[in-house]
Design goal:
This protein is of the alpha+beta class. 27% of the residues lie in helices and 34% in strands. The strands form 9 sheets. A 4-stranded antiparallel β-sheet has the order 3-2-5-6, with no helix packed on it. A 4-stranded antiparallel β-sheet has the order 8-9-7-10. A hairpin with a 2-residue loop joins β20 and β21. The termini are far apart. 26% of the residues are buried.
Length: 465
């Protein structure tokens, strides 16, 4: 059986499906978008064509397929025959005459079940090649896959037919039958996107991963690529772009997004904007979503800052650090804003690291760094930054500032804690020494009573220790 389906061009359209093979053309009119043909010859190549007439324009599509079969590969040597050089050409009249005579003789002398199959054209004998010596024939016995026939049964039937035939003397030592491996030849009908699985004298097909079987009744013949990107079947990160490929797909993190695992791209995409303001940015447990993490965390002070540009409209070019719009906005922040902030704070160490731009309307995310001796708090920085941003970009802006605990601040806190702890331990040690000294002095001036027997009751005697 052959099953064939096609993509509809519109509703209520009549299609004409045609089957071309070794018999007369079969034409079928249908409103469906699939058709199945049964009772076909085994191992036979067919062409299926579908035509549709829509708005006076004829459109057609076709596909070449081959029916499944059980194939036994055979060889025999005809001693009395003289080799004709034209036998090397399968298109020659000599080859075709020899093939017809050979298949008629063998088929006509088959018995029982084999005879019935041959008469119903369900058993075909096809010559692969003829070679010298005297004439050696390589052929295939092709039959339906449903036939429960094994190599021994087929071989015995062939020997009987050769003995009864008028082909002349046969070299039975050079005669054999074996199960053909259809997967090793181009004769199997598996799709190029299917795996061919050998099953004795026949085979089966199975669509490979990443392909959908469009002919489940005849598996593995029509395997169509699955678009994992369109069906949300990919493992791409939500911050990645999915690109469908034949049988698979590829993922790539969007511009401005960091790939946490470049060896398996697009699966672990991390947006620096989501982690740069995290209080744990400088902790050793942080998975380092920022390339500039070391610079930020080694600064004396760092602040996560945002500028909301209320009068700007976000565009995808602001994801791309190579775009002109990105560069212009980046330059204004890292040059104009930085210079005016250095003047306002009277601190030339002030600097800005731009993390990126995101929608809503346009939000600029960046880190402000300070290396000077004088520390400032987030509120002071926000007040100064808001004033400068309005000078540079206008009043339709809003600034947010949040302090980032840096390694320097952590180290300073640790050092302070160590000093305090040292002082406390020193005081405790001095107190311990004083207490011990007092105890020793009191002991040196104190005595001990004990009973010294004398008379019936005894007397108390006092001695210094």
């Amino acid at each position: 059986m052959i099953q064939f389906s096609w993509t509809p061009q519109g509703g209520g359209i009549a299609y004409t499906a045609s089957l071309f093979g070794d018999e007369a053309v079969k034409k079928t009119a249908t409103y469906k978008t699939s058709i199945a043909y049964e009772h076909l010859l085994p191992g036979q190549e067919y062409i299926i064509s579908v035509e549709v007439l829509n708005c006076g324009k004829k459109t057609s599509t076709s596909k070449t397929v081959q029916t499944a079969s059980k194939n036994f590969k055979g060889q025999t040597r005809l001693i009395d025959k003289v080799f004709n050089p034209q036998y090397r050409n399968k298109s020659s009249a000599a080859f075709k005459d020899f093939e017809k005579n050979f298949t008629d003789e063998i088929g006509g002398k088959l018995t029982g079940e084999f005879k019935n199959l041959f008469d119903m054209r369900k058993l075909r004998i096809v010559i692969d090649s003829l070679s010298n010596g005297s004439v050696t024939v390589l052929f295939n016995m092709v039959m339906p896959v449903q036939q429960n026939l094994i190599q021994t049964t087929v071989f015995n039937a062939l020997i009987i037919a050769l003995n009864k035939s008028a082909l002349g003397r046969v070299d039975f030592n050079s005669t054999f039958i074996e199960a053909g491996n259809s997967c090793e030849t181009v004769s199997n009908a598996c799709s190029e996107y299917a795996s061919c699985i050998r099953e004795e004298a026949t085979y089966s097909c199975k669509c490979k991963d990443g392909f959908l079987d469009h002919s489940p009744r005849v598996p593995g013949r029509d395997c169509q690529d699955i678009n994992e990107c369109a069906t949300n079947a990919s493992s791409c990160s939500r911050l990645a772009t999915c690109n469908n490929t034949v049988g698979s797909y590829e993922c790539s993190c969007n511009p401005g997004i960091k790939d946490g695992n470049p060896t398996n791209p697009g699966r672990q995409c991390k947006d620096p904007v989501l982690c740069f303001s995290s209080p744990s940015l400088c902790s050793t447990q942080n998975d380092d979503c920022l390339d500039s993490k070391n610079q930020i965390c080694s600064s004396k002070q760092a602040f996560a800052c945002e500028i909301l540009f209320k009068n700007l409209v976000f565009g995808p070019e602001l994801y791309n650090s190579e775009s002109e719009r990105y560069k212009n906005l980046f330059q204004s922040i890292t040059t104009d804003v930085v210079q005016q902030m250095q003047t306002s704070l009277r601190d030339n160490s002030f600097d800005i690291i731009v993390v990126g731009f995101r929608p809503g309307s346009v939000i600029a995310y960046f880190v402000s760094l300070l290396q000077g001796q004088q520390s400032i708090d987030a509120n002071t920085l926000q007040a100064n930054l808001s004033k400068i941003v309005k000078n540079v970009f206008g009043n339709e802006t809003e600034v947010t500032v949040q302090s980032i605990p840096t390694s320097s601040e952590t180290n300073l806190a640790w050092k302070t804690a160590v000093i305090v702890l040292g002082v406390l331990l020193g005081v405790a040690l001095i107190l311990a020494v004083l207490i011990l000294s007092v105890c020793l002095w009191m002991r040196s001036t104190a005595g001990e009573y004990w009973l010294e027997p004398k008379g019936l009751m005894g007397n108390f005697a006092y001695h210094y220790l």
